[in-house]
Amino acid sequence: MSSAAATALAKTQYALTAALRDPQLDAPDGVSPAALQVYRRLVYNNIERTLAGTFPVLRSICGDDDWHARLRRFVAEHRCQNPELRHLPEDFIAWLDASSLSGLARSTAASARCAQAAGALVKYDSIFSSVAHSLDTAGQTLATISQARQAASAGERGGDPGWIAELCHYEWVELALASDPTELKAELPFSFERPPQLSPLAWTLSYRYPVHRIGMEHQPQSAPADATYLCVYRNRGDEVRFMEINALTLLLLRAIESQPQLSARDLLQTLAVELDNADPDAIVEAGSTLLNGLVQRDIILGSRSA
User: Fold this and answer.
1) pTM of the entire structure?
2) What is the pLDDT of residues 90-100, one digit of tens each?
3) Which CATH code fits 89-303?
4) Where are the domains of the chain?
5) Among 17, 145, 206, 258, which residue has the least CB neighbours within 10 Å?
6) Which is nearest to 124 in space by CA: 141, 112, 107?
């Protein structure tokens, strides 16, 4: 095939795929409008079924007109880089996130794919400023949180609620963990004198909105003052569970990721010092109870060799 013919073919292919994605475009020369409509329905219906199955909460909240208008916009505007249908939900999240500039949070070590799917930003509240220099687990600092929140509030577009990208990300995490082929190691003994072994199937997440409560009966009009912190994990029974966590739990889990050489006792003592707590023994005691609970949930799998 000559270069001119190849160029002409490429232009025809681009015109055809653009018309398949966007029903506002006319059929390219040589393509029957009736045939084009058949393929448009096939393309759209496959995408719609995949996304409706991945995001059932969002689908239940949206009316039909709103749901299909949003999906039509996604199909027309977004350029998927991966041809596999199973990656489509990640592309949808990325498109929503770019549209709203909302910025999504993720676990740093356990979910590299999550970053690709959502262009994630790890967000912390200002209460952690005193420990930012020692808990910089994602190469991001607390100094960016104010700008991130302002950009998120200013960037919500097209009437979409501010929580929509975060809700979809949360729903996707459940699917990603359920389908992850990783098998958890056999249960290990846990000792406070050795480093904790964090499960690769436990993701710490931070959202502006309480995504785990959003549904037909609860759709917040604005982001609350405090961020929502969650740990979503898959246990040894292959059940995906979530746990709302507080600041101490978040800091402890991120510290385990960023300082894997420290024993459980040293991690707790370090946190007590960094938090400048008047009663460090209380922090260590609370952290000890917390660690035992995380072991029972398979978020911590036991202890590693020092």
Assistant:
1) 0.75
2) 999 999 988 65
3) 3.90.930.50
4) 1-77, 89-303
5) 17
6) 141
